Amino acid sequence: MDRRHLPLSARRLLALLALAAGPVLVLGVLFVLPVTGMLREGFVVDGSFAPGGVLEVLARPRVHRVAWFTLWTSGLATALSVVLGLPAAYALHRLRLPGRSVVRAAVLVPFVLPTVVVGVAFRQLLGEGGPLGFLGLDGTPAAIVAGLVFFNVAVVVRTVGVAWESLDPRPGQAAAALGASPWQVLRTVTLPALRPAVVGAASVVFLFCATAFGIVLTLGGVRYSTVETEIYLLTTTVFDLRAAAALSVLQIVVVLALLAVSARLRAVPDPTAQRSVVPARRPRRADLPVVAATVLVLGAMVLPVLALVAGSLSVGDGWGLANYRALTSAGDDQALLAPVTAALATSLRTAVDATWMSLLLGGLVAAIVTRRSHSRTERRVRSSLDAFFMLPLGVSAVTLGFGFLITLDRPPLDLRDSPLLVPVAQALVALPLVVRTLTPVLAGVDDRQRQAAASLGAAPWRTVLTVDLPVVWKPALAASGFAFATSLGEFGATSFLAREESPTLPVVIFRLIGHPGEMNYGMALAASVVLAATTALVVLVVERLRVPGVGAF
Q1: Residue 503, class by beta-carbon neighbours within 10 Å (0-12 exposed, 13-18 middle, 19+ buried)?
Q2: Which residues does 385 contact at the CB level (< 8 Å), separation at least 6?
Q3: Radius of gyration of the chain measured on its C-alpha atoms
Q4: Which residues, 6 or more positions from 413, have their beta carbon under 8 angstroms from its beta carbon?
Q5: DSSP track, 75-122
Q6: Are 332 and 515 in contact (CB under 8 A)?
Q7: Distinct helix (H) and strand (E) counts, the chain
Q8: 3-state secondary structure 362-385
Q9: How far apart are CA 388 and CA 31, in angstroms?
Q10: pLDDT given for residue 161 in this prediction
Q11: Rounded to whole angstroms, how far apart are CA atoms 142 and 447?
């Protein structure tokens, strides 16, 4: 049957499916196939379905200890992140403080720092000879929780702060006029209005803590393992792929459940969603405790970074740049096959490739899921595609790297020696971030403008250039920056896939701290500073774009 004789709704549906075929194929081959292969490793024995192996792994006492450690450390870190983040969210989003915009940008930096860098910074801070070494916290669960809080408190500050600055102040003012104390206003008016944002931020923080990798691996080693690091150790040290696959299955189920709960909580009507931003006001005397608490939080966030920088400059009994000059060497006892400078170049090249891949695929996905639906069937198809394209968010980077390792190693998809293997994995990790950044922007474009351009004879590509591009170019730059920063610091999947002769910088840092020797440790500190500075610079440039909603997690 000639397509021209089909009903308009059928033609639109076919066009939608044709446009989505490419991204679906890419995600199917590079995501669904590796994850399916990982699941098969756990459930299929000699070609037969045998779930007993998975159940046997999950019944091991060590697995129970790992699961419990993951649960309580993530829960405690989440609670502390909320408690510490709420005062800072209020101070930085509701009060007109000196340098507020700079501080708000700086608060975001710890969240995008490579996790291995955060781990090294806390080792330097809490280790023997460090500024807080006298506390004896090095190598303890307290150090891991502190690292998780440092990494995730920005999520609470940004998410709750954005909601707080949009909160209508009049109900609180009315309660105060009726005699309510500031504490009563906060408890009975403000916090109930902010509950969707607070709960949503807490659920995301818990997810990030439960799937943390570099922080736990660096600070906990083999003594304290979460599910994420246990998968890595089972694969690379014990070579028990079946146990690793079983834990990956457990992690996928838990993470998808957390995402479902988070999505349900975000669906709760938010009274701040449709309000404009309320101008910040000058601090009052009653705000001084909140400001003081914010200063303490900021100081605690700066301390690990300062300890890292100071450690990188410490040489023997003095100060100098010897650790930085050593970055061109292979370290003590030839600890590295490639020097740190070469690894930095590899990381930058990889980040460029991962960025254009994630932006190309994410831009197409955002365009597909945000176009106006003209029928119930079309709307359901778009909704299903949206859920499918967000699947990478439900699988940790370690699980994804493990899946790549055991599936993309034979023809016709033997990518083990391909230089694109690591960029592809990192692009999939960054894909949900790109989609979440571009989707609300494209969804806000009035479809009538596209229709008007088409009615005037504009081709589809010209409509995109004249209607969509002027709106989306700045968010696209911001999404590119965050994808680039994510790729620079990605360690979970890359730790499985990076080749010995061309590792990325996070992998090299972890190798350096795993080799004894003062020179190796000094090089690890210097390399961490270089990587942190590069990542922070990218994020600060993105923040200068001031794109609404970007980075609001």
Answers
A1: buried
A2: 20, 24, 365, 368, 369
A3: 25
A4: 29, 33, 407
A5: HHHHHHHHHHHHHHHHHHHHB--TTHHHHHHHHHHHHHS-HHHHHHHH
A6: yes
A7: 25, 4
A8: HHHHHHHHHCCCCCHHHHHHHHHH
A9: 11
A10: 82
A11: 52
Structure-token match 């969707």, residue found: 196
The two three-digit tokens of residue 257, written as one number: 């459940």
**Residues 366, 343: Cα–Cα separation, whole Å:** 33
Helix-strand-coil percent breakdown of the chain, rounded to 5?
Answer: 75, 0, 25
Contact 105, 481 (CB under 8 A): no
| Joined tokens for residue 525 | 């500190």
Report the alpha-carbon distance of residue 99 to residue 92 in Å, rounded: 10
Structure tokens at 467: 């209607």
User: Given this model, what pLDDT does residue 400 score?
Assistant: 83
Q: Tens digits of per-residue pLDDT, 420-456? A: 888 988 898 888 888 877 877 777 766 666 667 667 6
Nearest to 86 by CA among 30, 153, 145: 153
Model confidence at 83, pLDDT cuts 50, 70, 90, reads very high
Neighbour count for residue 376 (Cβ, 10 Å): 9
314-315 vs 48-49, strand pairing mode: unpaired
Contact 492, 507 (CB under 8 A): no
Residues of the chain with pLDDT > 70: what percent?
86
What's the length of the chain?
553
Please check whether residue 486 is in contact with residue 394, taking contact to mean a CB–CB distance below 8 angstroms.
no
Sequence-separated (6 or more) residues with CB below 8 Å from residue 215: 115, 116, 118, 119, 122, 144, 147, 148, 151
Looking at residue 504, what DSSP letter applies?
Answer: -
49 DSSP β-pair partners: 44
User: Peptide bond before 412: cis, by omega within 30 degrees of 0?
Assistant: yes
Q: What is the DSSP letter of 281?
A: B
- DSSP 3-state assignment of 298? helix
The confidence score (pLDDT) of residue 272 equals: 43
Domains defined for the chain, CATH in brackets: 64-169+187-279+292-306 (1.10.3720.10), 319-553 (1.10.3720.10)
pTM: 0.82
C-alpha–C-alpha distance, residues 490 and 467, integer Å: 35
> Is 191 in contact with 271 (CB distance < 8 Å)?
no
Q: Is 129 helix (H, G, I), strand (E, B) or coil?
A: coil
Beta bridge partners of 95: 281
Query: Residue 94: is its pLDDT beyond 50?
Result: yes
Q: What is the spatial distance between Cα 349 and Cα 303, in angstroms, rounded to a whole number? A: 31
CA dihedral 65, 66, 72, 73 (to 10 degrees): 140
